[in-house]
Amino acid sequence: MAVPKRRRSKSKKRMHAANWKFKPLNLTKCTHCATPIPSHQVCYNCGYYKGKQVIQVKYKEDKKKDAA
How high is the pLDDT of residue 5? Predict the structure, then answer.
């Protein structure tokens, strides 16, 4: 089992921990509707993936329009 040779100081430990940053999402445009989506995922807006419809998307209707 690997064991550290020397104790890591508080400052070195904190500097190491500080580099764990959140990376922003790598968004691409949907080929069908141009909505920004994560790479290699089905478009949540239209249900297309690589130019083919994969899932049928149910559209939510606005309650404000129905009530008026």
Answer: 92
